[in-house]
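Q: Convert this sequence to structure tokens.
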Amino acid sequence: MPLLAFSASGVRFPSWSMTNAEWDALKAEYRELRLTASCCSNAVVPVVSSRGWRFYRHAPGIVCDHRESPEHIVAKTLAARAAENLGLDVTTEACGPDGRWRADVLIRHPARGWSVALEIQMSRCPLDEIERRQAAYAAEAVRGAWLVGFRLPDYEPNRDLPLFRLVSLRDGILDPWVDRGDGEPTSISDFVTSLLTRRVVLREPPSHTLSLSVVGSPSTCWRCFQHQILLVSFVNAPAGVLAPKGWLLAKDLAKVPKIHTAYRQVVPMLLRTVPDLTVLRPPRRKEAQPDLQAYCPTCDAPQSLHRLSQDLLDPLRQRCWTLQEGREWSLRERVRPRWDWPDGPVMDWP
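A:
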């Protein structure tokens, strides 16, 4: 349902910011004003829900595809009101050039000129459809931010697609709020205020934890009984058949020539940095190729990389070193990016 209507003379009537007296007067005069909806330019009637939320209902006999749930109407009202309280220009059900997009709440800065489209997406929608609609905003230099009422397991937080989890009910009552990820509720008003005053930040893992790195586990050589770091895999490799989710087993390294070449070039640097790290080479028995074996840095005895024990695969025991500079890091540092809005001011978005 639309929240914005226009009179025949072009006067705006935003439901989210009108006083009760102004709304009562509009209900008495809407026929003379010939109110039309912002979404389709058809006749509308000002109404109030049973819980006191104001919106416009299409006149009897009018067919419009723009239908919204009560949760959608409440969330959109709160977002529009918060943006307008910041002195920004607000339009709901706003259409882009040639109808290429329609924003639930379109916000413009009157002086700086930037625009933000806030989308309230309560019904389920695939991620690729959201990405398509986001691209339509970007093509018109409009930043898009999404409040979605469902989980998207394939979504990875990134600056080009700010997407936040919207929860409709609080203690069984319709009271939409935004979940930061820790279960703590943030009101839509507070969230939109933080977003538009540039206090929403993307928490990303350290850059070195995204770099191609070797992964090693503490071990003991079967021949000389000396301590060694058994190189068991590579992390952050280009995803592929041999490297699902960026993990490449060390024994399969020779099957990925590009990474194999990169590793061979940095072996001297890695050994200077980690002297007890095993070295990957082809097995001495020709029939065992193309799988690689690890060789003890002390006695050069071959170490099998097949059927590794759970201790060797335990992420809490493993350490990583980047191929670029041999920087050491822990897999615990490799956290997923997430959106946050701390109390202090930051300069990140929009």
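Residues 257-273 form the longest helix (17 residues).
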